[in-house]
Structures are given as structure tokens and as C-alpha cells.
Amino acid sequence: xxLRIRTFEEYEAVYQESVENPEAFWAAQADTFFWRKKWxxxxxxxxRKPDIKWFLxxxxxxxxxxxxRHLKTRGDQVAILWEPNDPGxxxxxxxxxxxxxxxxxxxxxxxxxxxxxxxxICFYMPMIPELAIGLLACARIGAIHSVVFAGFxxxxxxxxxxxxxxxxxxxxxxxxxxxxxxxxKEVVDIALQNxxxxxxxxxxxxxxxxxxxxxxxxxxxxxEMKTASESCEAEEMDSEDMLFILYTSGxxxxxKGVVHSCxxxxxxxxxxxxxxxxxxxxDVYWCTADIGWITGHSYIVYGxxxxxxxxxxxxxxxxYPDAGRFWEICEKHQVNQFYTAPTAIRALQAxxxxxxxxxxxxxxxxxxxxxxPINTEAWEWYHRLVGKNKLPIVDTWWQTETGGIMISPxxxxxxxxxxxxxxxxxxxxxxxxxxDGVELTENNVEGLLCIKFPWPSILRTTxxxxxxxxxxxxxHFEDMYFTGDGARRDENGLYRIIGRVDDVINVxxxxxxxxEVENAINEHPQVVESAVVGFPHKIxxxxxxxxxxxxxxxxxxxxxxxxxxxxxxxxxxxxxKPDKIQIVSGLPKTRSxxxxxxxxxxxxxxxxxxxxxxxxxxxxxxxxxxRAGVL
Length: 631
Ligand code: WTA
Prior knowledge:
By secondary structure, this protein is of the alpha/beta class. It has three domains: 1-61 and 260-500, Rossmann fold (3-Layer(aba) Sandwich), CATH 3.40.50; 95-235, Rossmann fold, CATH 3.40.50.980; 504-628, 2-Layer Sandwich (GMP Synthetase, Chain A, domain 3). The chain has 18 helices and 30 strands. It has an eight-stranded mixed beta sheet with strand order 12-11-8-6-7-14-15-23, sandwiched between helices. Strands 5-4-17-16-18-19-20 form a seven-stranded mixed beta sheet, sandwiched between helices. 5'-O-[(S)-ethoxy(hydroxy)phosphoryl]adenosine binds at residues 248, 293-295, 370-373, 395-400, 421, 483-485, 497, 499-500, 506, 511.
């Protein structure tokens, strides 16, 4: 089983060893898994290409490590504990044995529909057990899953399906969220009007709502599963075979498909899970993320199952039926480790302490956060009210591209400092550089966060466009992976993540490219041009502020704003809707036509008093006009 650090002294020693001799360190971790054939070489890497390979020549299947390996020792232990949206509906459990059987059955269904090793399958699903089972079924037969968060629009879904030329979509009829029942299959039907590669659709039944049916293409999952066998030989995979694609937003262009491979991802997610959360045998662990994002992939499904944990999967929202739902679930299922996002903490904090205090949270041992910087007030509230002033909070910094947690306290081991992600995990070598790429070696500095050495779950490529991967992450600074984040290192060497330094906005922990939102806004026929920036938002962390130039002044500003939001909802999804839309006659541009976002950001966050030098602008007067009209 994965090795676990238990004291700070041990952490320091292990960290040192992992830097001095990374290959031996990771080989020892990898040795705790089941390999069909052992690797012949631990690591080969060249960040310039980039070309990174871990555990070369190793043969394995991640599901044999998530499932089969546990059958003897914990076949009857709960693997997935599913809590439905409606507290009145019964929770569902799957023991490791049951989960194994379900995964095998679904793997047969995929095969029956012609899915083979290397084929891509798109998931567009609510948080129901079939989603986790489906991912594992893909991995079982070597198919590559590409999960698209079910809040994305038909348009965004079609783009992602086409980029990866997926052969199949797996979805549900509908989705229960709070007191709403949201159509899912309907969105898929629209997307599939423009996705020539899709041959079949498997539909899980959840809400029972009426759906359009295209016979020959659409199949009910439960019908297909009925006759499928409960055992299915796992496909032998190479360490470096692709495990999954997950789309994420960057500063330019369309979202890119981040690619993770089988062996390294397995080793790193299990190792980081065990150590960060200090998971003990028999604990109940709950991560509130959606599987549509990397957090759900790594720390609801793969990491916990690899570690033989009981992982809770929640279908609903934190505020339904009321703002006490998270704590009610913690009490009901006696949750030991609880992992959520700062935006959820802030939203619940705003609802008042009374939703927390009635609940028995005495089983909790570890609290965690992820996805965005946590502010001091939220940290303190979480620590005081939920953690009763004694539980460790692991503020985990990482990214879709890193596959797993990179900088974080190890619960109860690393000392804490509110709003600091603190120290790197063993094997992770972060550094701060200035704009010229010069490493800042002293403490008490701020700089651009880079990683100097590969770790097993680093992205391998961006699907279908390797050059884009190189340009985005490996071209800024020589021989370093550039994260896109700015960070501070304090006098003791602890890291605090400040936020993105590129044109990515983090809205409620969701990454959004400004260019992506602008492109969507520009689809409105009355829009000539737009510029989008983030601004501080009390609950969401950052909100979206759009400056828009129109062909002619709208007759009704509010109606126009509503239309723009509608267009964005159709192009991307409701999560990308601008909070503020300011109609302007021009944008601050340099003489070469580049929009000066720096100025717009300052106007949007109300710090426009110190705009700096605006003399390089084509039309400095426009700044005054925008400032006067700020929302
Ligand atoms: C931000 C989510 C501060 C950061 C796992 C990063 C954080 C981006 C933290 C990745 C944290 C994530 N503190 N900022 N603990 N965790 N971020 O790909 O800007 O959805 O680059 O992965 O979220 O977002 P992604």
C-alpha cells in the first residue's frame, strides 16, 4: 500500500530524498501497486519538447489497482457512498465487490457497442454513480474518457466532442439539482446535430423525464447492463497510454484537452491522497467537487479508490434543502475528511452559523479546500465553526494539468498558516521566477510559480495539438513548467498562491478564459467588440466584468444585457455569464491595437486611481469615459 508520512521530521527527510533521488523515490511508491509487468526505466524527460515519460515499459491497468486488488482484503467495504440530491431519497452504497461487478458489466456494454482501446468516450452527466462506474469501465477496456461538466452548453459540448472525435456519449435523461430538474439528454441531442463522430449514446435513467429518442443511436444504460457479465478481463495498458482527456480553459483560444496517462497518474493521485488527507483505514472521505472537473477525477474517483477508501459522492448542491446540507451529510455518514471549495465556504458563511452548529461534526478529522485562493475570513470561519478551532485545514494548490495536489499541508503534520498552501509534496520542486525567468532563490519574495522537475502526473500533451502544450506551459521559461499562477514565499519558505497572472479568470473555482467569454459575447449581432476581465466578488472569488462596444446604442440597456447573458449561456454555459456588462464607445488600446486589460482590471476592481502610464494608448480619453460609467 501507498507509503504514508506521519511526522514533520519524516516529511522533511522524505522531501529531501525525493529531490536528491527522484527516480528511486518514485520507484518505491510505484512498487506498492500491482503491475502486470514492471517498468524498465523510471523516467525520461525533456521539458523543451515536452516529452515526459514515467515508468517506461510498465504494463498495468488502473482499475485492477482501484478494484481487483482490494477484493480480497476489503471486498465488503463500501467503496462509493452516494448521497442523492433529495435528502428524502435513500443513499446508495457500492462495496468494492459490487463496484467491481458494475464496472465489469458496463465495460461489456461499451464493448458491445464497438468501443475499443484508444476510442474516446464523452461523459455529460449529473453526479450519479453511473458516472464513476463509467469512467472506470472506460479505463477497464482502455477507452479514453473525456468528461464535460454538465453545466456546459450544447455548443461547448459539441466542440469538445469534435476536438477529441469521440465515438460515444454517455449521459442521463435529466439532472436533479436543488429543487430543479434539469434536462441533460436534450442538451446532448442538440450537440449531436453537429458531431459526426458519435455513433451511439448511452442514457442513464435518473429523473424519468420524457426524452427524445433516436433508435439505433440511443440506448438505455440500465437495459444494456441487464444481460452483461459481471467479470471482464482488464485491458493491459502501457504506463504511458492515455487514461483520459479533460478540457480546461487557458488565456487564448478554445479550451484545450489536457491529457493524462495511466501509470504516473495512478501513482501520484494515490500518493497525494493518502498523504495530504492522512486517510486511515475505515475512514469516510468526502470531496464535494463535481466529477466534471479534475478534483472529482483525482480525489473522488481515482485517488480514493486506489487507496481503498470509502469515498462519498454527492449529487446535490450545498444549499438544498437548506444551507446546512453539507453538515447534515457529514453527520449522517460520519465523514472524517471533508474537502470543498472556498466559494462554497463563503456562500455558507453568508447564510449564518445557525446552519452549522446543530450538527454533530465530531467525526471530522481533516478539512480541505481547493480551486482558488481562500480569503482569511473564510479560512477562519471554516476553522472555527466547522473545525472547532482544532482541525487542520489543507489548502491544496494544484491544477488540471498537474493531475494531483502539488503544494499543500499534510494534515496534522505540516504547520498551518491561514491562506497559505504551505509546502510542496515530496517529489514536487516549485520555484518562483521573475518576468525574465530568473529564479528568485531567497525567501520573502513574490514571483511567477514554476515547477523545475517532472512529477508522475504532469500532463503529457494537449489533445491533438502538442505544440500548444509546449507553448502554453514549457516555452515561457527554459526547462520549467509554468503554472500561470503568481505566488508568494514567506520568510519560512511557505507558499501562498496569489492567483492567475494570465488572462484566466477563476469564477467560483471554475477556470474561464477571457478570450473564450469575449468570443461568446461577440456572437451577439449588436456587439462590435468586447473585453472581459475579472473583478473581486464576495462569494465567487472573482466575477466576470464585460466591456462591450455596440453597433448602436441599445434601445433598452437591461434588455440588451439580458440578451448578451443569454448568448453566453448558449455558447459556453451559465457559469460564464458576465456579472457586469458595461456598454462603452471604445476600449483602451495600444497603438498596435492590443487591448490594455491592465487598465480595465483596475477600473473593474475600483482601483483606477493609480492607472499608471496611459500615454501609449491610442485614445487616452476613452479611459475617462469608461471610468465614469463603471458599474
Ligand atoms: C487555482 C483545480 C489558490 C490556481 C484543482 C490554479 C488555487 C487553478 C488553489 C487551477 C489554491 C487551485 N489556492 N489557488 N489552493 N487551487 N487554484 O485547473 O489559479 O480547475 O492555476 O484545477 O486554480 O484550476 P483547475
